[in-house]
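My current task is to audit a protein record that another person submitted. Alongside the sequence sits a line of tokens, each denoting a local backbone shape. Where you disagree with what is written, explain briefly why. This is what I was given:
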Amino acid sequence: MAKQVQLDANGHRKFGIRDCIAYAAGDLGCNMSFALKGTMSIFWTQFMGMDLWYALLLIVVQVWDAINDPLIGSIIDADRRTYKRNKFLAYIWAGSIGLIVGGACCFLPFPNAPVWAKFIIFIAGYVVWDAFYTVANVPYGSLLSLISNDVKDRASLSAWRSIGSIFGNMLPMVILPFIIYDKDNNLIGERVFIAALIMGILGFICFQFMTRNTEIRVDTTVALNEEAPKFNVFKAFGNFMKNRPAVGATLAAMGMFIGMQGATTAVTVIFQSYFKNVQISGIVQLFAMIPIVAFTPLARKMVAKYGKKELATFGSICSVVAACGLFIITPDNTQLDLVIYILCQLVYSLGLGIYSTVSWAMMGDAIDYNEWKFGTREEGTVYSLHSFFRKLAQGIGPSLVLIIMVALGYVGADEGNQAWHVAVNMRYLVAGTFLFSAILQFIGLGLVYNLDKKTLKKMNQDLGRDVEADDVLTYTTAEDADNLA
């Protein structure tokens, strides 16, 4: 006999573990497509032989990002058509189809093509991938504020999204180095292309699972007999810049991605030419994720006790301390240095994990703040601008770091055999990149983001939301325990 679905007062399926797993699957799908972006710089500098050309091209395609993200976000907000379930889910479904091949377009293996042809291959491939990724990712991020109004539920969704992101990164992080590098620590470009195709298919499957198991509980549609307010994209952009929580969360996210994406190439070079074993790089990074995984189950309870802003700010302080520790290096004893590197990465990841598990819930609150202060929700625009600045950090960060790498002696043609002094320079560069990243996170979370626990409670009161939820511990009732089981 099938178990009867329990409904809430509005006739929706009650929020539970099914919602959390479905939402996590969405970010798993995103990361199946996005995770290989960290390999892009090695692919285009070492396999395709572009070096500084790649840094310049990466900046160029950010112009497309500047148009793409806010444009699609504003199109979604302005879309008044009636969909069978929800317009956000419809856009996600369409984007996930394109991502099957979108990611592979960035890794077309033609190393002997003329330079002008490589320009076209890179720009065209990136534009195709980025367009489909944005169509899927912008509405996906906006869904968090529509699945539930309850702050506990949003904290759970944010934490589970982090789980989806973690597992989406684990697969390529651990497995791919053993597949795409040879015994001399050199990249095999053709294998990257095949891996991107496989990951696109896996991402599509994750998105399909997510759209079929997502319940929209927050009604933001305008009744047929009411006049929908005219959408003004410039006013929406202006509101975003006046939305302190959105700006602060975005600044912190930019810092996080400058550290995660900006240092990727230098980290790979460290394991190629400093530690002399690129295949263990994924295992080391996986080990560094232990604090994130350990903290995720505690996120909901910690949010209820301390508040999201307070927790995230503490996490950024942990990251600053760890980044300072990365400057302690022992180039005469790389085994000891590897231990120091791993320990500092553990502490850095703890801080990053504390922030990342609540980051999306903080953006959900920022969308509510927009409604509280300006009377409009504008989920698509707020999230798309947030996504744009994140992407800007993901593009500009690696470009600037790569330029610095070349200035410090990095030569793409040398592949996994960089000169020793270059390898040592990369070790310092990684420490500096992580420190800059952590400081930017602290500024965004501690100084700009202004929705502390007290202010958040007042906002929820004014918006008619559940204000007692912050004081309730997580998963303490029999019903919650049954849902988890």
Residues 222-229, 467-485 have pLDDT under 50 and may be disordered. The domain at 17-218+232-476 is CATH 1.20.1250.20 (Growth Hormone; Chain: A;).
